């Protein structure tokens, strides 16, 4: 009998439309898989079994009645816990929002519900999306399904681990500096950061408003295109939402899968490879370039000289915006409220006690950094200068895209590291996003496609690596064409998807 949890979302959708399986069967298979492996992986903070099955039963009844449904109707999905969901806890991985149940849905959740997709639950994450390992969650670590002693990436490690562990065919992540793409790279999944404004931010618990972007986490490039087309498009409730239709993403993925990249110029970013990248990561990257060349692409070298300043600029802009956005968590309106143990109960003392108890160390670190960068006398020197660097990075991208249709690099400089290995070294942790951050600063789209396995420097079992493709703003279709072509070439070489080679969790 076919294991439904191993099928892609596109295949499941076809089987559902053909009446070969029911949504209840698919959803129950995912819930059974969650029950079997979740104690080891801990990808979820909340599992909504009853609601998911109720949605599945409704979709099955509507399909049986002959109703025309969305192509993904009945396909289950998991949602990162930074996205608000009516009737389900939404904590952003923080104690300060423990038990908070929003009275409304994010726009992308509305679209998921309207399509008839059962929501399996909410996935674990670094607190307020601050981290690269999901070790900064207030609710415990998520473990990488490839090696349970290693990180699944972050901040969206829960979504990536859920997809990699076959507990959900699809998931939603958010990407502020790489939080979809970096977990994708280290778990062998596909992660997409759409163009900024391409998917509504209404209902995302904000970290850095000029950088945050929700997107798909899947097992195939086509699945990402299908989900992206559903959740994307204009939303008048988001002032930064692009008031234009999306390009044909699914069509681009299907064309790319045919393996012909004739006429496509691929730019290799000099500054996003070499020193600091594990030899195995670099080797898989160069092998992927050879496959793109065989598919007909022209590969050229491009230089983006200001990328070396991206990390520093990002870690001024993000903390500054986080300091502002997180000021609302004050113990007064919603979420946690802690009163001082002694002395007068004043607004200031309640705020201090609540924020002291509710925020974790990494969140406090970034709030302090951001508040300092925005303070009188330092604003121009720090935040203002970082914004100037951001403009230079955007100009680098503009110049590079005059030479190439897409830009490529390894997604992450290393394979998954061991839990606890970098927890006491914030700078080492931040360096995990060195290749992904420039895209967020410029607002352009990016995808990470699994491109092989590499043995980590300390030895042991081989672990996944990722190949990043970047495209100009609003040209997300280019990601899917090139990503699908690489995926097809790799799967032809491997004889199937990379995740088929992952350890069996039971």
UniProtKB/TrEMBL annotation:
Pfam families: Amidase. It catalyses: L-glutamyl-tRNA(Gln) + L-glutamine + ATP + H2O = L-glutaminyl-tRNA(Gln) + L-glutamate + ADP + phosphate + H(+). Keywords: ATP-binding, Ligase, Nucleotide-binding, Protein biosynthesis. Its EC number is 6.3.5.7. The active site is at 80 (charge relay system), 155 (charge relay system), 179 (acyl-ester intermediate). GO terms for molecular function: asparaginyl-tRNA synthase (glutamine-hydrolyzing) activity; glutaminyl-tRNA synthase (glutamine-hydrolyzing) activity. Residues 25-479 form the Amidase domain. It comes from the Bacteria. Allows the formation of correctly charged Gln-tRNA(Gln) through the transamidation of misacylated Glu-tRNA(Gln) in organisms which lack glutaminyl-tRNA synthetase. The reaction takes place in the presence of glutamine and ATP through an activated gamma-phospho-Glu-tRNA(Gln). Heterotrimer of A, B and C subunits. PANTHER family: GLUTAMYL-TRNA(GLN) AMIDOTRANSFERASE SUBUNIT A (PTHR11895:SF151), TRANSAMIDASE (PTHR11895). NCBIfam families: gatA. Belongs to the amidase family. GatA subfamily. This is Glutamyl-tRNA(Gln) amidotransferase subunit A. The gene is gatA.
């Amino acid at each position: 009998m076919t294991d439904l949890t191993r099928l892609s979302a596109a295949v499941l959708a076809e089987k559902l439309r053909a009446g070969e399986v029911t949504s209840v069967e698919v959803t129950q298979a995912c819930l059974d898989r969650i029950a079997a492996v979740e104690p080891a992986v801990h990808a979820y903070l909340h599992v909504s079994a009853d609601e998911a099955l109720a949605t599945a039963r409704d979709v099955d009844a509507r399909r049986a009645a002959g109703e025309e449904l969305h192509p993904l109707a009945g396909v289950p999905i998991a949602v990162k816990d930074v996205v608000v969901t009516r009737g389900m806890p939404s904590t952003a991985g923080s104690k300060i929002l423990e038990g908070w149940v929003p009275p409304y849905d994010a726009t992308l959740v509305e679209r998921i519900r309207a399509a008839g997709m059962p929501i399996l639950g909410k996935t674990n994450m670094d607190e307020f999306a601050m981290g690269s390992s999901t070790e900064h969650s207030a609710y415990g670590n998520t473990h990488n399904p490839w090696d349970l002693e290693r990180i699944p990436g972050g901040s969206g490690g829960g979504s990536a681990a859920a997809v990699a562990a076959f507990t959900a065919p699809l998931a939603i992540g958010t990407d502020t500096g790489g939080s979809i793409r970096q977990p994708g790279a280290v778990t062998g999944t596909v992660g997409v950061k759409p163009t900024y404004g391409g998917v509504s931010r209404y209902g995302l618990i904000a970290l850095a408003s000029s950088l945050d972007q929700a997107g798909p986490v899947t097992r195939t490039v086509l699945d990402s295109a299908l989900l992206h087309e559903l959740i994307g498009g204009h939303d008048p409730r988001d002032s930064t939402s692009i008031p234009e239709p999306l390009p044909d993403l699914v069509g681009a993925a299907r064309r790319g899968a045919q393996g012909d990249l004739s006429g496509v110029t691929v730019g290799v970013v000099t500054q996003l490879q070499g020193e600091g990248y594990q030899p195995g990561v670099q080797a898989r990257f160069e092998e992927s370039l050879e496959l793109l060349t065989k598919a007909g692409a022209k590969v050229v070298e491009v230089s983006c000289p200001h990328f070396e300043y991206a990390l520093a600029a990002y870690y001024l802009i993000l903390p500054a915006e986080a300091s502002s956005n997180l000021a609302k968590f004050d113990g007064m309106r919603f979420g946690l409220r802690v009163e001082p143990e002694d002395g007068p109960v004043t607004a200031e003392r309640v705020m201090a006690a609540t924020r002291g108890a509710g925020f974790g160390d990494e969140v406090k670190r970034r709030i302090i950094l951001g508040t300092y960068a925005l303070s009188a006398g330092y604003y121009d020197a720090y935040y203002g200068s970082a914004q100037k660097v951001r403009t230079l990075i955007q100009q680098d991208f503009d110049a590079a895209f005059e030479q190439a249709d897409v830009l490529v690099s390894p997604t992450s400089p290393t394979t998954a590291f061991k839990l606890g290995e970098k927890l006491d070294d914030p700078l080492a942790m931040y360096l995990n996003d060195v290749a992904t951050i420039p895209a967020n600063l410029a607002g352009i789209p990016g995808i990470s496609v699994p491109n092989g396995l590499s043995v980590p420097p300390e030895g042991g079992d081989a672990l996944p690596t990722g190949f990043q493709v970047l495209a100009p703003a609003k040209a997300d279709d280019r990601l899917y064409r090139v990503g699908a072509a690489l995926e097809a070439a790799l799967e032809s070489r491997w004889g199937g998807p990379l995740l088929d080679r992952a350890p069996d969790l039971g």
